[in-house]
Structures are given as structure tokens and as C-alpha cells.
């Protein structure tokens, strides 16, 4: 007999599927009810647990016949690569008394429709018998590796990137573990499919391709009820939220509610690249309307058909959301702001960074990855950070965020005041070079970059006057690094560093081919979206991609494994240093200033370890004691998409 708090259950009620099968014979194969017992400590209700899993990292209870029954889980153990198993993905049961005490085991047709547990043709003969799958599947049994091979074969048949995106999203909604296995094993090929540049087109057409919801939609209609809306989400132990209001999607502008493709894509990368459990992540779109007239007139648009709310109405909705998140998920849930317009992005980050664990990928993530690329590039061009001069085209979230982090790192290296290191960095916006004479009319986030200089109206003249060693584009406007601009950079730099960061590809300031040809093969080039290798005078140049996916997955993992309660700028610097250290001489020889994505999980573990170490150093970590080897600990905490064996 199994006793729980003095209450006896039916003999061998949890001793394995054989016992469950007897109980299920009288019930529908779809949902199986077993074991009814004690009325003590009533908490009521029913808990769905999914299929019972075989796993070595559990405390097993042996039955009289020697078979193993999964009853308890050590809360400190790591199961299947997750950060503790607090999500119920691998638990057979929990210490939860209910009356009637019931456990529901997914089986039959419903199991094949459950993306969290479905394995398709990979269900074994034993599993097909135990879970009423006979006849519901063809007789062949295949491995997960063969499924990956088949999926990639099918995806490669599509010539249109959006079709590949839709095929991947369909797979995610059908078989979650296979989706992540495919993505992890083919990350360099599929990253442009599940994220930029293809995700931009997906957001533009999201209303037309929408099939099933993949996150939470919180609109003005939910004002006053946001906490209730959060509780509608089926997963209760959320650790990462990516939220957007859709006002500035990549370089595509206001896409309103259709910006949901961004949080969905980002969180897919959190799981695939950073090892955050899919069940611990939550995509959110805040719908306050859109100013995009084309969308408002589109019969397939899925959002509120009204102009954007602003001012107090907007602020109150965001404040209710932030409060509800903290109330529902606790102090340590990471909230990542994504693709908010400049005027809101800076204000939200400044307002909540002292009270919540918040991170703006457009401001901080972009800055961290670009700083890493610049630090790596110094090994090719020589000199220290302080010996170089930087010129930005674009003074929004990305531009000012990158500039500030460069200045911080420069200040850290030279011990010079931040006000002094900022003078090595110049920004050009839509009205020309940002100079002191414009200071009164500038937005607050641009004012620190207003230096003494005569006004200059265009980028080419700014390049000729400032003579930067590093040119960075974050304008969101394509073709702005013209032939004249690149040639000017090459005229006074032996190896000009040119970073065209705007996304998607159509908005890139220049292409890799243009940068290499116009600089006569001397440029050190990286971009926000990927470009094919370029051949110039019998030499093949492989350009790097300054993709935020290098940073944010590992950064988030570092915050989670340390139990950090706030994000500090020193953590961003630590992440940059960790990424720059991963660039090898072999990479440099190819002209790369970023490591290949094929090693991204190991890179993410290194970044996570550095970020976690900084959190402990700053006293912002709550997961104590600190692990002795943070790299090994980070790797052990990563989610694994490999199939589990079901009993």
C-alpha cells in the first residue's frame, strides 16, 4: 500500500501502466482516470499529467514484482536538461491531495494531438500498446533522427522562405520536441527561417497565415482583468516572458497585433539556443491598436481596429501588465521588451529596471552583441577600444544602446569618466550629425551624444569630417552606406570596420558584396541579417552576422540559473566579453568577427556562466550556494529535445 499523509491509496495504484490500464478499461481512451481515495486535506479538482515517463533522475518506489513506479521527484534534480523540474513536464505526480484523488493520463488520439508529448511514428511498440495507439499510426517505428532527416528534406523542397517558416510553425504545433531537435541540429540553416529575416514577412502577413494562437494577446479590452488573463495560460511556472506592442517590428514599422511573430520567434530561440524550457516561456502581445492604415483596412487583420492608445491610457495598461506578471509569476521572472517604439522603449526600461527583472533586447541585447564583434575586430585592426572612433547612422534604441555600452566598456578599460569616453562616439540621425547646437531640440536619449562640432547634414560629409575607424548602421533604412561612403571609409582606414545592422535584409545599410567590392576586399564586415559568402579577387569572404541570438538566450539562461532579481550593465559587458572570447583564429582568417552558430549552445553556456558569475559578484543572485563550475552547471540546466520513453 502507498500512504500519503496517513491516507492509503488503492494497492499499487501508481505502480505502472499495467495498473493504470485496468483502471482505464472502463473509461474513454482519451483521458484516463485512476486511483480514487482519501478525503483528508481536500484541495479538489483534477490534474492532467501527460504520459508517465521513465527517467533515471527520479526517486523510484519498487513494487513487490520489482517494477519501478515514478511517484516522487527530487526538487533539486535536473531532468532532461531543464532548470529544475518545476514545470511538471517530467513528473508523474506531485504531492497534491485531492478528493476524489485523480490522475489523468493522456492516451490514444488525444496523445497524438498533444504537441508536448506527441512523438509521431517514434512511439515504440510497447508505447502503442500502453497508450491505445494501435491502429492510429502506421505500423512502422522510426527514430527521432530519421524524423529530423525527413523534416529537413521536406523543408528544403520549399523555395519560398515564408513557406519554410509556416512548415516549422506547423511542426512546433504538432510535435514540440521534434521542432526543437530539427532547429538545434540545423541552426545555421533554419535561424533565418524561424527568425530574421523571414519572421518579418511572417509578421506582415500574420493575419493571413494565422492558424492557432501561440501566446497571450492582451488588449485594451482586458484592462482591469490582466491578472485573470495571465491565469488563463496553461503553464503556471513561467521564467521568461517576451512582450511586444508591435509598434516597431524590425525595420518594418507598426504591425500592431501581428507583431506576435517576434515573441514567438524569440522564445523558440531561447529554448533552442539557450536551453530554456519551452513550458517556462510565454509570448505576449500588448494590443493598443495600430496606426498602420493598411492593416486597419485589411479584412484579415487580427488586432484591435483603432488608432494606437497613447499617454495615460497606454501607461496604465502597461503598468497593470507589469504588476500582474510580478504578482502571478514572482520576482525572478525575466520580462524581455521587444520592438517597442523608441519613445516607449527607453521609458519602460528606465521605469521598471529598478523594480522588475527586465531586459530590452533592442537596446541592451543589440549593444552587447555589437560590442562583442567590435572587441573581436580589434584583434584584426589593432589598438584598444579607446583608440578608435565610432560613427553611427541611426540614433534610436539600437544606436544609442550600442553607443552607451561601448562607452561603458571604454570607461571600464581606461578608468576615464563616462562623459569623456562618450566623446569618441558620434551619431547621425535623420537631421544630420548630432551636435551641441541641436541639444535643446533632441530627445533625452540622444542628448549625451551631442558633441561640439559644426552641423553636418549627411552621412558622407560626417564620415569625411569625423574620419571614424568603425561605421555602424542601425537606421532601419536600406542602401544608406553608399559606394561613396564605403570608399571614404577605406580611404583613411587600412581595415575599415563596417557593421550594417538593420533588419530584415531589405533594410540593411549595404550588402556584404557591396562592402567588400567597394573597399577592395579590405573591409571587416558584419550585418544584422545573413548574407552569402562573397568572392573578390579569388578570395572568399564570409561575413559575420551580428545577430542578437548570440546574446539573449545565454544571457537569459545566466539570469535564471543564478536566480537574479535585476539586470545590471556589468552583466551585459560580461556577456560581450564571453562572446568575443569564442572567436577563434580560424574564424579571423575567414574575416569573421563572430563565431559560427553551429556552436551556439556551448557559446550560450559560456555567456550564461559569465552573466551568472557577475550576478553573484554584484549580490543580485538568489540561487545559493553558487555552483563551483558555472559553465558545467549551465550546460546541465539546458533543455534537451530528445524524446522520452513512456511507460
UniProtKB/TrEMBL annotation:
Residues 172-353 form the Malic enzyme N-terminal domain. (S)-malate binds at residues 248, 503, 547. It catalyses: oxaloacetate + H(+) = pyruvate + CO2. A divalent metal cation binds at residues 338-339, 362. GO terms for molecular function: malate dehydrogenase (decarboxylating) (NADP+) activity; metal ion binding; NAD binding. Transmembrane segments: none annotated. One of its GO terms (biological process) is malate metabolic process. InterPro entries: Aminoacid_DH-like_N_sf (IPR046346), Malic_enzyme_CS (IPR015884), Malic_N_dom (IPR012301), Malic_N_dom_sf (IPR037062), Malic_NAD-bd (IPR012302), Malic_OxRdtase (IPR001891), NAD(P)-bd_dom_sf (IPR036291). Divalent metal cations. Prefers magnesium or manganese. Its cofactor is Mg(2+); Mn(2+). Residues 363-616 form the Malic enzyme NAD-binding domain. PROSITE patterns: MALIC_ENZYMES. Keywords: Metal-binding, NADP, Oxidoreductase. One of its GO terms (cellular component) is chloroplast. The keyword Magnesium does not apply. Gene3D superfamilies: Malic enzyme, N-terminal domain (3.40.50.10380), NAD(P)-binding Rossmann-like Domain (3.40.50.720). The active site is at residues 195, 266. PANTHER family: MALIC ENZYME-RELATED, NADP-DEPENDENT MALIC ENZYME 3. Belongs to the malic enzymes family. This is Malic enzyme. It comes from Macleaya cordata.
Amino acid at each position: 500500500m502507498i500512504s500519503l499523509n496517513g491516507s492509503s491509496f488503492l494497492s499499487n495504484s501508481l505502480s505502472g501502466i499495467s495498473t493504470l490500464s485496468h483502471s482505464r478499461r472502463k473509461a474513454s481512451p482519451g483521458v484516463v482516470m485512476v486511483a480514487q481515495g482519501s478525503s483528508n486535506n481536500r484541495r479538489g479538482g483534477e490534474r492532467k499529467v501527460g504520459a508517465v515517463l521513465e527517467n533515471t533522475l527520479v526517486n523510484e518506489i519498487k513494487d513487490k514484482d520489482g517494477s519501478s513506479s515514478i511517484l516522487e521527484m527530487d526538487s533539486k534534480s535536473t531532468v532532461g536538461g531543464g532548470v529544475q523540474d518545476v514545470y511538471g513536464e517530467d513528473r508523474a505526480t506531485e504531492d497534491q491531495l485531492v478528493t476524489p484523488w485523480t490522475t489523468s493520463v493522456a492516451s490514444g488520439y488525444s496523445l497524438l494531438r498533444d504537441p508536448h508529448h506527441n512523438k509521431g511514428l517514434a512511439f515504440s511498440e510497447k508505447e502503442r500498446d500502453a497508450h491505445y495507439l494501435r491502429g492510429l499510426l502506421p505500423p512502422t517505428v522510426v527514430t527521432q533522427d530519421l524524423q529530423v532527416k525527413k523534416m529537413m528534406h521536406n523543408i528544403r523542397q520549399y523555395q519560398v522562405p515564408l513557406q519554410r517558416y509556416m512548415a516549422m510553425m506547423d511542426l512546433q504545433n504538432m510535435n514540440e520536441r521534434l521542432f526543437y531537435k530539427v532547429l538545434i541540429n540545423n541552426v545555421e540553416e533554419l535561424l533565418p527561417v524561424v527568425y530574421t529575416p523571414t519572421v518579418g514577412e511572417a509578421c506582415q502577413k500574420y493575419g493571413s497565415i494565422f492558424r492557432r494562437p501561440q501566446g497571450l494577446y492582451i488588449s485594451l479590452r482586458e484592462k482591469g482583468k490582466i491578472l485573470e488573463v495571465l491565469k488563463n495560460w496553461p503553464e503556471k511556472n513561467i521564467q521568461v516572458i517576451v512582450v511586444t506592442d508591435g509598434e516597431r517590428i524590425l525595420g518594418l514599422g507598426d504591425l500592431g497585433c501581428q507583431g506576435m511573430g517576434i515573441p514567438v520567434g524569440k522564445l523558440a530561440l531561447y529554448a533552442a539556443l539557450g536551453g530554456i524550457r519551452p513550458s517556462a516561456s510565454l509570448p505576449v502581445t500588448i494590443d493598443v491598436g495600430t496606426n498602420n492604415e493598411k492593416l486597419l483596412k485589411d479584412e484579415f487583420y487580427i488586432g484591435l481596429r483603432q488608432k494606437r492608445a497613447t499617454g495615460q491610457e497606454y501607461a496604465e495598461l502597461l503598468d497593470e501588465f507589469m504588476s500582474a506578471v510580478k504578482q502571478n509569476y514572482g520576482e525572478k521572472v525575466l520580462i524581455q521588451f521587444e520592438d517597442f517604439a523608441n519613445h516607449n522603449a527607453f521609458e519602460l526600461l528606465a521605469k521598471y529596471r529598478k523594480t522588475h527583472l527586465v531586459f530590452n533586447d533592442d537596446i541592451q541585447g543589440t549593444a552587447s552583441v555589437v560590442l562583442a564583434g567590435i572587441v573581436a575586430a580589434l584583434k584584426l585592426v589593432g589598438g584598444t577600444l579607446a583608440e578608435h572612433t565610432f560613427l553611427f547612422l541611426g540614433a534610436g534604441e539600437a544606436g544609442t544602446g550600442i553607443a552607451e555600452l561601448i562607452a561603458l566598456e571604454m570607461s571600464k578599460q581606461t578608468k576615464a569618466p563616462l562623459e569623456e569616453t562618450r566623446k569618441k562616439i558620434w551619431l547621425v540621425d535623420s537631421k544630420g550629425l548630432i551636435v551641441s547646437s541641436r541639444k535643446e531640440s533632441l530627445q533625452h536619449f540622444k542628448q549625451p551624444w551631442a558633441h561640439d562640432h559644426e552641423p553636418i547634414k549627411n552621412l558622407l560629409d560626417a564620415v569625411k569630417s569625423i574620419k571614424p575607424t568603425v561605421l555602424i548602421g542601425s537606421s532601419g533604412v536600406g542602401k544608406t552606406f553608399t559606394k561613396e561612403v564605403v570608399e571614404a571609409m577605406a580611404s583613411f582606414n587600412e581595415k575599415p570596420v563596417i557593421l550594417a545592422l538593420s533588419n530584415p535584409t531589405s533594410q540593411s545599410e549595404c550588402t556584404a558584396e557591396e562592402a567588400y567590392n567597394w573597399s577592395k576586399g579590405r573591409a571587416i564586415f558584419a550585418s544584422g541579417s545573413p548574407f552569402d559568402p562573397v568572392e573578390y579577387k579569388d578570395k572568399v569572404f564570409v561575413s559575420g552576422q551580428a545577430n542578437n541570438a548570440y546574446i539573449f538566450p545565454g544571457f537569459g539562461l545566466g539570469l535564471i540559473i543564478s536566480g537574479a532579481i535585476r539586470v545590471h550593465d556589468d552583466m551585459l559587458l560580461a556577456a560581450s566579453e564571453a562572446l568575443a572570447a569564442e572567436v577563434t583564429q580560424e574564424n579571423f582568417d575567414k574575416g569573421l568577427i563572430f563565431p559560427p552558430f553551429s556552436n551556439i549552445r556551448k557559446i550560450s553556456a559560456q555567456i550564461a556562466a559569465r552573466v551568472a558569475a557577475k550576478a553573484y559578484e554584484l549580490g543580485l543572485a538568489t540561487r545559493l550556494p553558487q555552483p563551483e563550475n558555472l559553465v558545467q552547471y549551465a550546460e546541465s540546466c539546458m533543455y534537451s529535445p530528445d524524446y522520452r520513453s513512456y511507460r
